[in-house]
Amino acid sequence: MRTATYLRNTTQLLLLAGLVACSAMPVAPPLTEPPRTATAGDAAPVSWESGSQGTLTAEEQQEITTLMRDELSSLTQKTDARWHINAVFRRVETVTPWLNWTSTLLVIVPVDRGGVAVDFIAQEKSSGESQTIQFAEWTPMSDLRAQYSRLGPVTAGVHHAVEQLQTTLLAQMNASRTPSINREKDPIHDHHESAEPRRN
Question: What is the pTM of this model?
Answer without folding.
Answer: 0.71
